[in-house]
Amino acid sequence: MRRITRIATVGVASAALALSVTACGGKSSSDTSSDSKGDKTALAYDIGGRGDQSFNDAAYAGLVKAEKDLGVKGTEAEPSDGESDADKVQRLTTLARAGNNPVIGVGFAYAPAIKKVAPKFPKTTFGIIDDASVTGKNIANLVFNEEQGSYLAGVAAAKVSKTKTVGFIGGVETPLIKKFQAGYEQGVKDTDPSVKVLSQYLTQPPNFDGFSKPDLGKAAAQGQLDKKADVVYAAAGLAGSGSIEATAKAGKWAIGVDSDQYNQKGLAAYKDQILTSVTKDVSGSVFNLIKSVKDGKPQTGEIRYGLDKNGVGLADSNPAFTKMTDVIAAVDKAKKAIIDGSVTVKTTP
């Protein structure tokens, strides 16, 4: 039976307590990591945590596969509400001192913490998903061409829209989520310039509720539906589930993100209206990093997953979508054009 140890760190105080327990052996930070060869690994989740039906759950799937196929023991660390970078530093330090290798930060929010912690554990590999800004000899940057998958979603949205109005909802207005917006808008306009795109963000940094509160996504989607949008694409983590709910209940098309949300159990009631999802092979990136450490050849530097390597794509789980032959043909044509370089997708709106 698969076993996963879960750590929920609530603020610096409890993290410090955890550190005092794990550091009882008296070893230095680098000493405790020196004997780890990938038998233990850890995921530190992003906002929303496991159960978001999207980004974090995709990372979790990679951990599950690694446990099954590689025999590693996995540890999961959940985020706390309103946590600071200092909390993340303590969390990653705790995980590294416990002998986990690699330690993977799920999301760009871990960049400042990894920058501080990684140099203290030179024999531990640190992975960070969705960030290439923090670098080091023992840091693996797992990044994706989200704009390419989003372009394909824009093609599909423009083809299926009957009202000539579609929506985009971003969780938090950051450079990463702007890539989703940019690709989607370009895909729509390249397919049908007459289609209007309604784009909005749920929150602005440093407020990251737009990734964690479904009610915000639900309200935003309802607002776009009221403006005649009949396809709504949300890149908003857990908040995106609220967008899917509102869109599905209105009998309109929702487009999911990160995971194939048609197959997510928590969204089963709305699956018939989930046209497709822009997928990122987050699970594969997590598995590949864990395997590289296990094999003694840890990945470091930028590891990019694009359309050419199926690192991003468009899910085809909904039978209704696969029966739309003209839509599928348009998506396939666009995919080929991106891969062969005849279409360059923008990364900013």
From TrEMBL:
Sorted keywords for this record are: Cell membrane, Lipoprotein, Membrane, Signal
The keyword Signal appears for this protein:
yes
Every copy of the ABC transporter substrate-binding protein PnrA-like domain together lies at: 46-341
Compartments where located = Cell membrane
Signal peptide as annotated in the record? 1-23
Q: Which Pfam families match?
A: Bmp
- Tell me how this protein sits in the membrane: Lipid-anchor
Against PROSITE patterns, the record matches this protein to: PROKAR_LIPOPROTEIN
Does the entry feature the keyword Membrane, yes or no? Answer: yes
Write out the similarity annotation: Belongs to the BMP lipoprotein family.
PANTHER family membership: ABC TRANSPORTER GUANOSINE-BINDING PROTEIN NUPN (PTHR34296:SF2), TRANSCRIPTIONAL ACTIVATOR PROTEIN MED (PTHR34296)
What name appears for this protein in its UniProt entry? BMP family ABC transporter substrate-binding protein
Please tell me the species this chain comes from: Streptomyces laculatispora
